Amino acid sequence: xxxxxxxxxxxxxxxxxxxxGLRALTKPGVRGFPEVDAAQALLAATMRKDRVKxxxxxxxxxxxxxxxxxxxxxxxxxxxxxALAVLREAGLDAVAAVPGDPLLERxxxxxxxxxxxxxxxxxxxxxxxxxxxAHANTPPGGTLYVAGDRDKGFDRYVRAAGAAFGTGExxxxxGGMRVAKLVRRxxxxxxxxxxxxxxxxxxxxxxxxxxxxAAKPDKATAILLRELGxxxxxxxxxxxxxxxxxxxxxxxxxxxxxxxLVDADLQSVRSSxxxxxxxxxxxxxxxxDVGTALxxxxxxxxxxxxxxxxxxxxxxxxxxxxxxxAKRHLKPGGTLYVVANDPLPYEKPxxxxxxxxxxxxxxxFKVLKVSRPE
Length: 374
What we know:
The protein is α/β, with parallel strands linked by helices. It is built from nine helices and 20 strands. It folds into two domains: about 10-185, Vaccinia Virus protein VP39 (Rossmann fold, 3-Layer(aba) Sandwich), CATH 3.40.50.150; about 195-370, Rossmann fold (3-Layer(aba) Sandwich), CATH 3.40.50. A seven-stranded mixed beta sheet has the order 5-4-3-6-7-9-8, with helices on both faces. Helix 3 runs parallel beside helix 4. It comes from Deinococcus antarcticus.
C-alpha cells in the first residue's frame, strides 16, 4: 500500500528522547520523515552537549532542528524544496543553495560555527563537494561539526575534511552514526568535483555531483525512452516530473515538444538546465516540491520515473504525490507514462487518473501508460 495522508501538511517531527526540549518540523520529502534524520539527531545532541551558541551556519538544515538549540541563531541553507517549505513554515529565512554556491552576499561575515550532514548516499563526488563547501564557508579558527553514516563513507570523508581543515576528530557515535569536530586552519579550499557527462540518444547529458544517474542513464529511464521511441511529441506540451539530469525532458524537446522540467532537488534543477543548454534546446526548469510550482498548467503528456527513496528510507508518500500531481496537471485526453520498479503498487492509484495499460515489463521494471478520458 502507498502511505496515506496529505503530502503538503507540515507537522512536528518525531524526535528521539535524547532530544527532549528541541523541536523540528517535517513533511513527506524531507530526509528522515516522519522523524528527523538520524545523523542530524546525533549532530544536535552533540552540539547541545558542547553548549554551542551564537550564529550557526547549517548547510543541511532539513527541518530546522538546530534552530531549537538554546542560544543558537540559525543560518539555514537547503537545496530540497520540501525542506525549504518546512523551514519557511518554521519562520526561518532559509537560503536555497547547493554545494559551491556563494553565501557571502547573504551573510558577509562568516559564522564561526558551521554544521553539515554528509549525504554519502548521494555518492563520493557529492560528499566531497559538501566538504569543500563547508571549508569555504568556515573562517580560519572556526569550527565545523560534520555528521554522517559510517556505512556511507563517513570516515573517508572526515579524513578528506581533516586534510583541508588541519585538525579534528570523531567526537560522538551512536550505532552507525558519527559526528566529527574540526577546527579550520588557514589554507586553500579543496576544488569542487566536476560534473560528469555522457552521450545518450544523440544528447549530451550533464550530471552534477549527487544527481540521480549522473554518470549514465539508469535502466528504468533507458527502458522508458526505448519504449516511447515512436511517440509523436511535436508541438505537444510535455512535463518531465522529477527531471534529475534532464535526460527525459531533453529527449522530448529534441522531438519538438514544449517542455517543462521540475525537480525538488536544486542540484538536479541545475543539472537539467545545463543539459538543455549543452544541447541548445529550449525548456523551462522549475525547482518544485513535486508539482507545487506548476500552478494551473496542463500538459498533453507527462513522463516520470517517480523516486521512492528520500535519503536512506523508502518513502512512498512522494511517489503517491507524483501520481496525484500528474492527475492535477494532465489535460483531458492527455497521456501519462510512468516507469517504476516491478513490485511498486502504482496501478491502483494510477487508475484514478485514467485507463492503465502495461506497455512492457523487463529487467525488474515496468512501463505503464495512463490515458485520461476526454
